Amino acid sequence: MAEAVGRFRRHFEASGERQRKHVEHWKRRLVELAESRLMERILGDAGGEARLTELARAVAERKKDPFAAVNEILAKSGLAETAPTRRSD
Questions:
Q1: What is the model's pLDDT at position 83?
Q2: Cα 23 from Cα 46, distance rounded (Å)
Q3: What local confidence, expressed as pLDDT, does residue 7 receive?
Q4: Per-residue confidence (pLDDT) for residue 77, from 0 to 100
Q5: Containing domain of residue 75, as a range?
Q6: What distance in Å separates the CA atoms of residue 46 and residue 1, rounded to the nearest whole number?
Q7: In this structure, what are the phi and psi dihedrals at residue 81, rounded to the nearest 5 degrees?
Q8: What is the tens place of the pLDDT at every residue in 39-87?
Q9: Quick one: 29 and 8 in the same domain?
Q10: Same domain assignment for residues 56 and 81
């Protein structure tokens, strides 16, 4: 069994799969950290949570487009110039 594990590990490392998985892990982690920092910035000021609730209610009641709501959040946080109107998936 130990020999099979050793062969797998050597193959895993030689194939570049280990490095690819490591890079993917850090990509996900960096996005998580960026999201966390952005949310702190967006909700951290006075009234941030209340503003988010108000916008969520407007979206839920179909009074506001979700993309417009996000743009509004970003604008009030000083990030509007970097926000695209819609995702282009």
A1: 44
A2: 37
A3: 84
A4: 82
A5: 46-89
A6: 59
A7: -65, -20
A8: 888 888 778 889 999 999 999 999 999 999 999 988 888 877 654 555 5
A9: yes
A10: yes
- Determine the length of the chain: 89
Which segments within the chain are labelled E, that is strand? none
- Asked if 88 and 70 sit in the same domain, the reply is yes
| Residue whose pair of structure tokens reads 């949310």 in the numeric block | 39
**Cβ contacts of 71 within 8 Å, gap of 6 or more:** 80, 83, 85
Q: What is the largest CA-CA distance in the chain?
A: 63
Characterise 78 by phi-psi region: left (phi > 0), alpha (psi -120 to 50), beta (else).
left
DSSP state, residue 46: T
Enter the pTM of the model.
Answer: 0.57
Confidence check: pLDDT of 34 > 90 = yes
Structure tokens given for 21:
């998985």
* Separation of CA 31 from chain center: 5
